[in-house]
């Protein structure tokens, strides 16, 4: 990916609000045609970085370049980017078509071209036939797609999305995640997407920048971020992770340090099974069994003095069978390649 043109380059970005440092010396390259997600908890700096790229905030230090042009001090309208917000911001008194056409009308694009481009944008988000409807006649997902079409119709080089799916219910949000990623592939525009939802980031992104306390804690592909976290924060924030530290790590792994093992990598086996070549085992007692439909979570107090969580799919077992393990001794077994050092 490094040989692709850089769509956005930020260097040394810093932004403070009074005594609060919102963004602290951030460097980031976003490549042309990439879907990059800025992921982090509230207050981590991800939205402030997006707003600085859009031009809605000015940095105290650092620079922003779009396609090699320094736009640090340029106003939002002078930047070849469009932003989609969580609240959609559709005009209630305008039809869907007129909402999508609005940006082109402001730019004084001729009426025939406006309509053709608006219809093309609506087709891209699969809303052909909805041109004459009012926003109030649409579902939440449809209104979100109108907002996307309104942003796409201007043909920006970069589309910035500030938690645009946050107001949708879970099922619709999951459907929109798939649609949005497919749309990004089709139109080929660079997407920078802000979210605090780890599953959303893992589902949609080419790369993820995990933010913490105004800095990028880790930048990489979803696989890198999830399988190979570089800090306890990333291991704990992106998904669920078991951490083995100090004396527990020494007892179980045979080495001091801090190690991460994902719950789905751990198998729950009968006590005394032990580990085979290339495996690690920790004996313990099942404290809790949590049945959640497709999977079951096991909370196990291990003899080494810690608590681990294991997750298994309910492919061949019923809820009654796994519930019977509560209070029983078991062995937790995982492959050594699935334990990752955080030191």
What does this entry look like structurally?
It is a single chain. This protein is α+β, with helices and mostly antiparallel strands and 343 residues long. The radius of gyration is 24 Å and the shape is globular. The protein contains 10 helices and 18 strands. The protein has helices at residues 46-54, 96-106, 111-124, 140-152, 170-187, 198-204, 222-227, 232-237, 246-252, 319-323, and strands spanning 6-17, 20-31, 35-39, 61-66, 69-70, 81-85, 158-162, 190-195, 207-212, 215-220, 242-245, 258-261, 267-270, 279-291, 295-302, 306-313, 329-335, 339-341. Helix 2 crosses helix 3 (111-124) and helix 3 (111-124) packs across helix 4. The mean pLDDT is 91. It folds into 2 domains: 6-237, Rossmann fold, CATH 3.40.50.300; 242-335, Beta Barrel (OB fold (Dihydrolipoamide Acetyltransferase, E2P)), CATH 2.40.50. A hairpin with a 3-residue loop joins strand 15 (295-302) and strand 16. The longest helix is centred in the middle third of the chain and has 18 residues, at 170-187. It has a 6-stranded mixed beta sheet with strand order 6-7-8-3-9-10, sandwiched between helices. A 5-stranded antiparallel beta sheet has the order 13-17-14-15-16. It has a 4-stranded antiparallel beta sheet with strand order 2-1-4-5, with helices on one face.
